Amino acid sequence: MSKPISSLIVGCSGSLGRAFPPALPSLSSVISVDLSPPPSPRHPLISAHLPLPPSSQPSDLTNLLPHLDTAHSEKPFDLIINTGGSWSSGPFPPPSSPHSTFTTYLTSTSSMLSSNLNSAIFSCGLATRYLTSTGHLILTGSHASLTPSTCSSFMPGYGLSKNGVKYLADMLRALKPEFKVSVVHPRTLDTEANRSAMPEEDFEGWVRCEELAGEVMERLVEGGEEGDWDVVKEGGVTRLVKL
User: What biological-process terms (Gene Ontology) are attached (predicted)?
Assistant: First the structure.
């Protein structure tokens, strides 16, 4: 891949988001949008960072648009990637459970909708406003959310929010058939946070962020494929499988 790409990455400071700038061709440009600034030293392709307000209220998010208007006028965006999101558990409250369990359920669900679904809604709005007619929007779903029974026992909020990402993509495809819209559905990502949270698990089967970013760039951006994609790791190799 040699053609420079003008890209906007929502969640660029997270583990997965950080993996994308190195996968882009040289002379590309990246606008980072995230709660936190990119780690120092900042990757040379990141030309600007726009901090998301912690409240993520609509009016606060709208305040980012003048900066994006300017960046877009200079280099229209060919690629928008949303890697923002998080995970928490909060099961449905069983009979006679403590009131605190009900609170945890509501808090977790609200948090997941805010973190995962709202970031995707924000990214879809950026795509309809800024993405070039031949551009590509790539969203991050989750393999677990593809099967409701997988999430129902202890993480309904997470499953609902990530399944909503897929539904958003379907709506955008119907509205803007000229766009390329893709959702990748990884299993567990190999990050420091996940290793700390699940130290007893077998890390060998987890997907490295750098491998996923490389596969996304090769198949979806350079190769021009689009759609919903399962992310599998077999024989130590990460690959995308179309759903």
Answer: L-phenylalanine catabolic process; tetrahydrobiopterin biosynthetic process
For 81-102, the pLDDT digits (tens) are 999 888 888 899 999 999 999 9
β strands within the chain, DSSP E: 6-10, 29-34, 46-51, 77-82, 131-140, 180-185, 189-190, 207-208, 227-234, 237-242
Nearest by Cα to 147 from 203, 230, 242, 241? 230
Q: CATH no. for residue 172?
A: 3.40.50.720
CA distances from 13 to 33, 171, 179, 202 (A): 8, 28, 26, 26
Neighbouring C-beta atoms of residue 36, cutoff 10 Å = 13
Within-domain flag for 1: no
Q: Is residue 45 a part of any domain in this protein? A: yes
- From 184, 161, 188, select the one nearest 230 (Cα to Cα): 184
**Number of separate domains in the chain:** 1
Task: Sort residue 176 into left (φ over 0), alpha (ψ -120 to 50) or beta.
Answer: beta
Question: Within a 13 Å sphere around the CA of 104, how many CA atoms are in the beta-carbon half?
Answer: 14
pLDDT at 198: 86
User: What H or E segment, with its residue span, contains residue 212?
Assistant: helix 209-216
Distance between CA atoms of 11 and 168, rounded to whole angstroms?
Answer: 18
Range of the domain at 80: 6-242
Least Cα distance to 6 among 183, 132, 119 occurs for 132
The amino acid sitting at 177 is P
Size of the chain, expressed as the number of residues it contains? 243
- Please write the tens of the pLDDT for every residue from 143-202: 888 888 878 788 899 999 999 999 999 999 999 998 899 999 998 899 888 888 888 888
